[in-house]
Amino acid sequence: MMRTMSKIIFGIDLGGTRIKIGLFDINGNLISKGDIPTDTSNNGQNIIDDIARELLRSLEERQAGLADIVGIGIDVPGAVLGHTTVNRCVNLGWGLVDVSSKLSEAMGIPRDWVIVGNDANVAALGEFFDGGAKEYSSMMMVTIGTGVGGGLIMDGNIIDGVNGAAAEIGHIPVSDDLDFDCSCGNRGCLEQLASATAIARMAGTADAKEAFDRAYAGDELAVKAIDTAAEALGKAMAAVACVVDPECFLIGGGVAAAGEKFIEKIRASYAKRAFHSSKKTKILRAKLGNDAGIYGCARMILNRYE
Fold first, then answer.
1. pTM attached to this predicted model
2. Less CB within 10 Å around the terminal CB: N or C of the chain?
3. Which fold has domain 8-119+291-305?
4. Per-residue pLDDT tens over the stretch 248-282
5. What is the mean pLDDT of the chain?
């Protein structure tokens, strides 16, 4: 039976530099949000305690107690097993970490109140229910930032895979021409050609924003970098469509803010390569921006009771 009282849901987006925390009501409405720094020192051993401290502070501020918590959803930048345990997260310095157990112990709440998901999958869940894909029954989200992440939603559910590695589109091999390794240890991954990091590297700029600014001003090297990224994305997405055939693709992350011109380039690359039955699959922009993670975390809790 669901607990009553104030019915607070926490959505926690655990990033490599900041931890975003959203407070939601039982209907999934965002009440407030804030963030704290991510302390990755000593292999991230302080992170869980920092989160617990901030959640308890938030409860006290609202004159609420532990019994008012319906659940805590948390996303992490790594593969997740059984919605409880992180299976290695380089950005945080974590190996195998049972986040549900550690956070529940730190707060003094039952372990099953805490649900954990991969950050890209959870962002996709947020966009599916509250953002750019809420009119569709299935979607594949491609998040383009420091890396390239993916999230697959079918009939309202995250598809995790047996090893927590489903929808890792950033590590689909798309090139045999690269002479350096991806962060995953392989070579030729989509992430090496289409991430913000890759775009800046290929354009010779400080960051991806500068690369897009130069490309739109006609700089040939920057244009080539943008075109290479779009070609690689379309190629990978065409491969994905052959396997899962989603109703739409959603482009999110910082690079999605580059505008419709970049999305059009991705659409053109996809259309060249997609299987004929999937050529007209919609490719759209995400709408929730940096809040997609906290919305998705809240939705993981709500899905448990629906």
1. 0.86
2. N
3. Nucleotidyltransferase; domain 5 (3.30.420)
4. 999 998 888 888 999 999 999 999 999 999 999 99
5. 93
